[in-house]
């Protein structure tokens, strides 16, 4: 029996953001992040990539004298960048396999072998498409909710006494980030759909 599907989530709360997507299970605050299951190899690797992203961004901001970006948004940016790049790489890895099987079928080479590969290949592509669709849905839900996007600004919320006082324009930065990753994931999805068809 198949395990239940893990649907990705980014959930803003009063003083933190709960994240469950890909290898990340984390609680993000305005000044720290708590990652669950850090001993798992994939989680350890992903966290290393996030740390690298944070160091690079910090160095760039210092080099160009830019105002420091809010920590929580950098962490979300890094996590989304990691997953988006991983999905793009996975999509690119599928392409030569699909082309090889199709070439075998076109050239009538090892017909039965190629035909036997089609079903698991299609199932793998469908499963991958579902993961990308789940990420897209999560991003769309966030982008459709101005209040949630505003609540992702933990650093700004920590500065004010009443979160109601937050400038509604603060969600623009979050929306731009989410839109960027949504576009990137749409490219991966389109490639998957083309391979399935």
TrEMBL record:
The protein's name: Magnesium transporter
Record keyword tRNA-binding present: no
Sorted UniProt keywords: Ion transport, Magnesium, Membrane, Transit peptide, Transmembrane, Transmembrane helix, Transport
Entry GO terms, CC: mitochondrial inner membrane
Stored Gene3D superfamilies: 2.40.128.330, Magnesium transport protein CorA, transmembrane region
Coiled coil ranges: none
Subcellular location, record wording: Membrane
Native source organism of the sequence: Pinguiococcus pyrenoidosus
């Amino acid at each position: 029996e198949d395990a239940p599907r893990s649907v990705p989530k980014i959930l803003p709360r009063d003083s933190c953001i709960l994240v469950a997507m890909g290898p990340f299970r984390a609680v993000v605050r305005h000044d720290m992040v708590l990652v669950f299951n850090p001993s798992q190899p994939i989680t350890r690797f992903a966290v290393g990539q996030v740390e690298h992203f944070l160091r690079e961004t910090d160095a760039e901001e210092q080099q160009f004298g830019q105002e420091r970006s809010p920590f929580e948004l950098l962490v979300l940016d890094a996590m989304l960048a990691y997953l988006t790049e991983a999905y793009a790489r996975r999509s690119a890895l599928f392409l030569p396999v699909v082309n090889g099987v199709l070439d075998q079928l076109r050239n009538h080479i090892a017909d039965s072998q190629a035909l036997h590969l089609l079903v698991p290949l299609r199932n793998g592509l469908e499963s991958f498409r579902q993961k990308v669709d789940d990420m897209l849905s999560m991003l769309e839900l966030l982008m459709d909710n101005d209040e949630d996007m505003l609540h992702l600004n933990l650093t700004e919320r920590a500065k004010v006494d009443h979160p109601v006082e937050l400038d509604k324009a603060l969600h623009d930065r979050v929306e731009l980030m989410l839109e960027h990753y949504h576009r990137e994931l749409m490219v991966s999805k389109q490639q998957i759909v083309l391979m399935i068809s």
